[in-house]
Amino acid sequence: MIGKSLGDRVFDVSNLIFLGIIGIVTVFPIYYVVVVSFTDPMEYLQKDIVLFPENWSFASYNYLLSSGAFVQSLGVSTFLTVVGTAISLVITSSFAYALSRKKFKGRRFILLLVLFTILFNPGIIPNYLLVKELGLINSLWSVILVSLSNGWFVILMKGFYDSLPDTLVEAATIDGCNDFTAWIKIILPLSLPSIAAFGLFFAVQYWNQYFNALIYLNDSSKWPIQVLLQNMLIDASSSSLGDVDPLLQPPPSETLKMAAVVIAIVPILMIYPFLQKHFAKGVMIGSIKE
Amino acid sequence: MKKLFSQIARDKYLYLLALPGIIYFLLFKYVPMWGITIAFKDFSPFLGYQESPWVGWEHFIRLFSGNDFLLLLRNTLAISFLNLLFFFPLPIILSILLNEVRNQFYKKTVQSIVYLPHFLSWVIIASLTFMLLSKSEGVVNQLFVFFGLEKFDFLTNSDIFWFLLTGQSIWKEAGWGTIIFLAAIAGVNTELYEAAKIDGANRFRQIWHVTLPAIRNVIIILLILRLGDVMEVGFEQVFLMYNGAVSQVAEVFDTYVYRVGIQQGQFSYSTAVGLFKSLVGLILVVVANKMAKRFGDEGIY
Question: Could B124 and A229 be called an inter-chain contact, meaning their C-beta atoms sit closer than 8 Å?
Fold first, then answer.
């Protein structure tokens, strides 16, 4: 601590306290929801505020998971996330890779077309009418297809591929690879960290999908978790859970809602530690160069 | 021409790799752009795109001469400018303060926490807002009662609705926004700090004379680009917080298009509204990017 002035120390301490408060304010809503969701229903009803429960309980979770509609919506979201992410990654990375190869004729023109889609969005209605014309209303494919890829990710990924040396692919070509096998065998293994970053971004996007599901899926049996949550929590529509186990005592609607929120956050919390390693890199990749 | 075909034949696998992406962008990004023509027609789903009659600027005239237009413009701009005023500076302040933390573990912990809300959906954020702030059950109001204060109605109060949205945006994105500034700060030559210290600069002076000038370009570029984006207020955020009591301050272009278009089926008129918003947005972004390029060495594209 030698050489540190009093002023410096005051600065350091108040900085730590200030950032600590920011951290607590950020984490408190999540903490509160998790804690109340595990609170014994009787205790919740008796106390004014629960900041730490005396009696823990899984009652709200049991009740929720006995609802066919809730479990089904988790299944729908899982399907959208897994299938959507896989297709998005394949299409976006192969497109970006091809665009990064200098021998690709017309790549500047195609890049301009891709760029323009970032700048200009035709709006909600033309997209809706396209999905309708394609007969995809009420099909889960509508939700996957409309957000399958986007200009940002293509351009960021292309920036990453640009940073790989050309000689790499040339050497592979001499060894008998064509562009396709070079992509599979050489480029993809090298780009695993970036694939992981973009894969996680896509996965979060599909798991959090709300707007497209809202406008394209009318059939409530096809609702992903976010739409069900919106109905249950914000519209407070009691029928959104459908049939539940009649033997279970319904917990207070508040603890039930919080349990539903926790379940919808859990997948994010599970991938978050993996995500964190990669996302700063994923965001920065290519953005410096382009 | 022959050469081009033989080149394409030679590199056929390259073009095959690009093909799904090209088809996707043409079908799902460019076909809707062509669909914009219905803003100038009286589109009827029975007649289709071709047969529906042209009506020229009729829908735009209806938009600009109606009462809704000024309301939509006011709400959209108000929400954007409040974000600019209160939300925009926060990631900068936060990243400067984070950069001053010497204890790496503490720094990483705070970072991990403040990044997290970025990954939560707006449905979750709206739900959390209701659980925290609702008048009857919300924990904040229960704390107010606990401390002997009056309950306050946060959610159906049109006076604070815009600030409520700003607060949500700050909670969700301020931490995430630090990434780009922290990266810029990390690029600062540490010798500059040493030199400043030798010259007797305290921490505030070091921040003022070394850190801030170093990230000045990034700040200006991002600010200009944000200005280019003022027509963009997130549909989901506003839509989810919308209720009858705040409708006068909560209707923005996107929510209006949804209500008039998808819910009431006025496809042509709502396409015209959306097109107006997108065109203004396009012009603003292009102008903003030009300005950003003038200030920094490179723009965003």
Answer: yes
